[in-house]
TrEMBL record:
The gene is folD. Homodimer. GO terms for molecular function: methenyltetrahydrofolate cyclohydrolase activity; methylenetetrahydrofolate dehydrogenase (NADP+) activity. Belongs to the tetrahydrofolate dehydrogenase/cyclohydrolase family. The lineage of its organism: Bacteria, Pseudomonadati, Bacteroidota, Flavobacteriia, Flavobacteriales. One of its GO terms (cellular component) is cytosol. Residues 4-119 form the Tetrahydrofolate dehydrogenase/cyclohydrolase catalytic domain. InterPro entries: Aminoacid_DH-like_N_sf (IPR046346), NAD(P)-bd_dom_sf (IPR036291), THF_DH/CycHdrlase (IPR000672), THF_DH/CycHdrlase_cat_dom (IPR020630), THF_DH/CycHdrlase_CS (IPR020867), THF_DH/CycHdrlase_NAD-bd_dom (IPR020631). GO terms for biological process: L-histidine biosynthetic process; methionine biosynthetic process; purine nucleotide biosynthetic process; tetrahydrofolate interconversion. The keyword Amino-acid biosynthesis applies. It comes from Zobellia amurskyensis. This is Bifunctional protein FolD. Keywords: Amino-acid biosynthesis, Histidine biosynthesis, Hydrolase, Methionine biosynthesis, Multifunctional enzyme, NADP, One-carbon metabolism, Oxidoreductase, Purine biosynthesis. It catalyses: (6R)-5,10-methylene-5,6,7,8-tetrahydrofolate + NADP(+) = (6R)-5,10-methenyltetrahydrofolate + NADPH; (6R)-5,10-methenyltetrahydrofolate + H2O = (6R)-10-formyltetrahydrofolate + H(+). Its EC number is 1.5.1.5, 3.5.4.9. Residues 138-289 form the Tetrahydrofolate dehydrogenase/cyclohydrolase NAD(P)-binding domain.
Length: 294
């Protein structure tokens, strides 16, 4: 069994980007600038956005955190989005999800300039991704593909079962894995909450991508010997004995499942760190693409 070490690979990617940024600086070029918009004080979102901004600093990017109060109106947020679209200093930006309930998420994501949409959430970019065109691929599915590539996991002609049909992970990864190419060419089954017998499907899977958010959902008796296991779940479970008052766990019952798996991602330290690395990669791409037009 091989651990798919997302922390290690994400550090390699960040080192590669650091080098590119240093070269850009040496050539007197503007370095990539990522902005992140956070509305409200959701604990997990604060952690993620803080981590994204810290990573920017480490690798030599410029970064701007725009932290708005939870009472921010939809109109105020849309104004901020328009401002970022028009700001030539910003190469790419993200609006951290979830947004407060009184704000229409779709409306906000639609307002983001697709050329600055380093999250790849805009329909233009999602559509391009589905059509194999050059675009920004959402960081989490992009990170999973990169992890599979760098560990040279054989996916060709394999049966991949994706659990979860979210717009951010399940849906896009099911498309990417079915496409032609490295870490792809899979026969994909997309399972979700209405799927009749998930265990019957997962037992047939050569590769399982679980993006459900249910702690320890995937048990060893649901997994075939030698399967590749990708755990996208990151759930905070309350635990008073921990310093932070919680611990992080994935969708996979790691210890018993790892005994059957050929490759497996840990939580934490698997897909999570890859997501940040690929967001940075997208921001670098946004900078390079922008330099053609500005
Ligand atoms: N919320 C959970 N994951 C993500 C992500 O990748 N991007 C943004 N913007 N919000 C998220």
């Amino acid at each position: 069994m091989t651990i798919l070490d997302g922390k290690k690979i994400s550090n390699e990617i960040k080192d590669e980007i650091t080098l590119e940024v240093a070269n850009m600086k040496e050539r007197g070029e503007k370095v990539p600038h990522l902005a992140a918009v956070l509305v409200g004080n959701d604990g997990a979102s604060l952690t993620y956005v803080g981590s994204k901004v810290r990573s920017c600093k480490k690798i030599g990017f410029e970064s701007t955190l725009i932290h708005l109060p939870s009472e921010t109106t939809e109109e105020e947020l849309l104004n901020k989005v328009h401002e970022l679209n028009a700001d030539p200093a910003i190469d790419g930006y993200i609006v951290q999800l979830p947004l407060p309930k009184h704000i229409d998420e779709e409306k906000v994501l639609m307002a983001v300039d697709p050329d600055k949409d380093v999250d790849g959430f805009h329909p233009t970019n999602f559509g391009k991704m589905a059509l194999d065109m050059e675009t920004f691929i959402s960081a989490t599915p992009f990170g999973i593909m990169e992890l599979l590539k760098r560990y040279k996991v054989d996916t060709q002609g394999k049966h991949a079962v994706v659990i979860g049909r979210s717009h951010i992970v399940g849906r896009p990864i099911s498309i990417l894995m079915s496409q032609k190419g490295e870490a792809a060419n899979c026969t994909v089954t997309l399972a979700h909450s209405r799927t009749k017998d998930i265990k019957e499907l997962t037992l047939q899977a050569d590769i399982i991508v679980s993006a459900l958010g249910v702690p320890r959902f995937l048990k060893a008796d649901m997994v075939k010997e030698g399967a590749v296991i990708i755990d996208v779940g990151i759930t905070r479970v309350s635990d008073e004995t921990k310093e932070k008052g919680y611990y992080i766990t994935g969708d996979v019952d790691f210890e018993p499942v790892s005994k059957k798996a050929s490759f497996i991602t840990p939580v934490p330290g698997g897909v999570g760190p890859m997501t940040i690395a690929m967001l940075l990669k997208n921001t670098l791409l946004a900078r390079e693409r922008n330099s053609n037009t500005k």
